[in-house]
What does this fold into?
Amino acid sequence: MPRIAHITDLHLSLDEPAPHGVRVWDNLDRVLSAAVSDGAEFIVFGGDLALYEGNIAIYRALAKRLESLEIDFILQAGNHDSTDLFPEAFGRRYRTRTQSMDMTVEWRGLAFFLLDSSSGELSDAQIQWINTAWRTRNAKAAVFIHHPVLTGMHRYMDANFALRNSDAVQSVLGAIPGPVPVFCGHYHMDHTLTERTVTQWITPATYVQIDPVAADFRVQDNGPGYRLIDFFPSGEIRSTRAIFLGSP
It folds into this structure.
């Protein structure tokens, strides 16, 4: 049974190793150790690797940290990242497609479709790409994107940092014969929502969780989190669960 881990919103920093009192590098180490112990065979890092904005020093430190991983992984960018630095820092873990980081990752006969929303929206070309790629690939597994495509579950993030053209993306994905599983981060919470043919799972952050009810930014003390995803060999989702590690 193929099992992967989705790890997102690391918000790493070299100048501020403990923003909001959170030791972000320790959180990453804890999540990686737990994911491997839980039997993950592949990791998708879902973006916002950097605390505020990406720089080569942060990315090189992360790449060094990941050298000891005994399983393969791929990295996506979030709105706090600098995509032009990814090739130098991460090498084969990242490759470009036109001006974005959209790609199809083949693993154990499955296909993961990675969409780059680091600009805060998807271009018409990106929307067309996922529409065509999903419909024409026989091997399917899931779409991975930093920003949630379906919204309406987080008061603060929806008001301030939602995917700017989420309606257009929802329209295209919702018209694809389903099911279309979507895994994302960005909202710093655990949430599941289904609309039309799309089921979306938001993975909690390894950094801090954000109160979805509060109008302003408010941290919830749930500890770092990540998600395990099990697939049938056909590419369908067998099960998925978010895991919180609590305070150290």
